[in-house]
Amino acid sequence: MYRAASFGDFKCAHCHTFVSSTHQLSGVNNRNHCPYCLWSCHLDLYAAGDRLSACKAGMKPIGLTMKKGRNKYRLESRGELMLIHACIECRAMSINRIAADDDAETVIVVFQESLALFHRIHALCDQYGIIPLNAESIGIVHRQLFGQNVEISSTWRSLHKS
Ligand SMILES: [Zn+2]
Ligand SMILES: [Zn+2]
After folding, report:
1. Which end of the chain has a smaller Cβ tally under 10 Å, C or N?
2. Which ligand places an atom closest to the C-alpha of 87?
3. How far apart are CA 13 and CA 41, in angstroms?
4. What is the pLDDT of residues 4-63, one digit of tens each?
């Protein structure tokens, strides 16, 4: 996704939006997706940031999952919301932290689309041991994106009306 070195402005390979370098100061050490369309690029092979993959195809955000903390007694809602990315060429999958400046409404759209195709996505994710969030997790998704005190956002309501 980053054309130049790790510092400076870049253009998203998927939506072609210009992403200013300030977006890289997003609290995520290894930012690997566009903050606007949330697409990533298949660069890593064995571990995040290794840049060893020869694929280099686009990776589509296909759903959300929850990364559990190390403490297994933690509540689910204390886990971290993650994006699931699937490579459009080789179907490799990865999960990635949502950055503070990622577009929350786009995250909701990804979640919405994943619910529409839930059985298919669940089957794909299963091969990688990833559990996609289902419709029952909407409260968790909203708390993580919009804060504890927000109920269902107007975005979600308008999406459901259409
Ligand atoms: Zn983009
Ligand atoms: Zn790939």
Report:
1. C
2. 2
3. 8
4. 444 456 689 999 998 766 655 555 555 678 999 999 989 888 887 788 999 999 999 999
Q: Ligand 2 centroid vs 33 CA: distance in angstroms?
A: 15
> Do the beta carbons of residue 7 and residue 24 sit within 8 Å?
yes
Which residues, in sequence order, are CB contacts of 58 under 8 Å at separation 6+? 13, 14, 39, 40, 41, 42, 87, 88, 89
Q: Which ligand lies nearest the alpha carbon of 102?
A: 1
- Sign, CA torsion 12/6/110/123: positive
Whether residue 37 contacts residue 106, with contact meaning beta carbons closer than 8 Å, is answered with yes
Q: Which residues is 96 bridged to in the sheet?
A: 83
Encode 5-40: b = buried (16+ Cβ within 10 Å), e = exposed: eeeeebebbbeeeebeeebbeeebeebbbbbbbbbb
Looking up tokens 């993959």, which residue turns up? 53
Interatomic CA distance for residues 93 and 123, integer angstroms = 12
In 22-79, the DSSP E strands lie at 40-41, 58-67
75-130 pLDDT per residue, tens: 454 578 999 999 999 999 999 988 888 999 999 999 999 999 999 999 999 999 99
Residue ranges covered by each domain of the chain: 10-161
User: Which residues sit opposite 64 in a β-bridge?
Assistant: 83
